[in-house]
Amino acid sequence: MRNQSDDTRNNLDKRTARTRHAEWFKKGIEHLRAEYLTRTNEAPRSFLHSVQVYARIRPMLEHEVARGEYTTLTCVGPNTVAVHNCLMKPDMVHKYIDTQVHEFSRVFDEATPTATVYEAVARPLVQHVLSGGESVCMMYGQTGSGKTHTMTGFLADMGRDLMALSTSIQMTAVELVGSKCVDLLHDRTKVLICESEEDQAIHLVHSQSKVATSVAELLALFHEAVSRRATESTQANTVSSRSHLIVFLKLVGAGPPSDGGQMVLLDLAGSERKEDQFTNDKQRQQETIETNMSHLALKQCLLAKENNSHVPYRNSALTRILKNSLWAAHKSCQAAVVVTASPIPADTEHTMCSLLNARRMVEVNPTVVQTVFEITETSEAKPIKLFKSFSHADVQKWLGAVSHGELEAYVDNIKPAITGAALLRFPPARLTQLCNGHAGHAKLLLHAMKDYIAKENEERARERDMRRANLGTKF
């Protein structure tokens, strides 16, 4: 019977497995992407929805690249995105990739600049505003997936286009934290959401507007509003929004036909990770519940609009605020949703949920094409070389690649007598000496060695289990 400490398969959660077996999963994803190459030149397809839904993949961040993360999202042509869910079978030996394929009005990969996304998503909405209509652009997705970044990027181009026909723009900015509404341009004054008995229009009582006469002034007002927005630190983001941000941009002095045109920008509260729920206090938990309920109410209203049925806008403060712009019978309204997605393996479950929920805003039962790719021995990476068998040249090559070259300056300190086996025997003081007295780099070197040994042990355990499985041995 094996020593329990030697069994690296026990208690391996999804995220740890995706990191530990990264090389094998990356190889499997590369194999799948090769099959998708034939579809990258497809022409965009049109979707006959009253609300267009777009997907945007954010690029990996520097710290994610540094810790060896990889992307699990693939854009397959102009309308399709594939999510590669990297999983282990119950035996914790065999690996597979469960791929879900979603279709949107358009998808934008991590290399697509914000200006290109604006042209496809927001410019048609701006043109509608310039003709005197109402437009709503909504950002939806997980905390840290790029919602606010995308909206901020849109605003500069939007201001330029709106100012082309208008002498000024009147901005109103409010925030919803749970069911509480506050004015972000006037010291977080409490705002009442009231419905007029005469025309059933919604009025934001106690909210005040400010006027911008240039794009620079418009951006300054927006940043002023964002700076007053309620945030909370989470494991996903140091400054994570826990509120909805709603910005109204009304044309002033435009003249017909633009008079009365209005653009509404909605940055929805980011979804929280499950582990964040355990660190929140009671008030934060209640706000999270109310935020999730408002997400549900918004989906119900958009779906009702899509099906030309009764819109239950009174179900939440968010949908009441949007009534004048989205649900008013006497106005011409257009809307778009941009769902932003994180590409890293740790966020796979969040990403799948975000993409599916975004589609559910306009589809009752979205079709999700699902395929499973088994990672076999032939598709897996080659077994790693044992550290203790490293030659002097192997140690130099390995050291130069640690943390993307952070320790490359010390490669020449590896003398011919320093092999892998010799380096493993070095005490911390000797490692510090090897790094020219830099204690932080010595610590990084020690951790890199330990990580490599852990991968060795995992590989050896995998090979041992494969042999046992092939022999049909029972345990």
Automatic annotation (TrEMBL):
Keyword flag Nucleotide-binding: yes
GO cellular component, one term: microtubule
Subcellular location: Cytoplasm, Cytoskeleton
Keyword terms: ATP-binding, Cytoplasm, Cytoskeleton, Microtubule, Motor protein, Nucleotide-binding
SUPFAM superfamilies, sorted: P-loop containing nucleoside triphosphate hydrolases, SAM/Pointed domain
One of the Pfam families matching this protein, by short name: Kinesin
PROSITE patterns attached to this UniProt entry: KINESIN_MOTOR_2 (PS50067)
Residue span, Kinesin motor domain: 50-364
GO biological process: microtubule depolymerization; microtubule-based movement
List of residues binding ATP: G141, Q142, T143, G144, S145, G146, K147, T148
Superkingdom, taxonomy of origin: Eukaryota
Keyword Cell cycle: no
Entry's Gene Ontology molecular function annotations: ATP binding; microtubule binding; microtubule motor activity
Similarity comment text for this entry: Belongs to the TRAFAC class myosin-kinesin ATPase superfamily. Kinesin family.
Protein name: Kinesin motor domain-containing protein
Species for this entry: Aphanomyces invadans
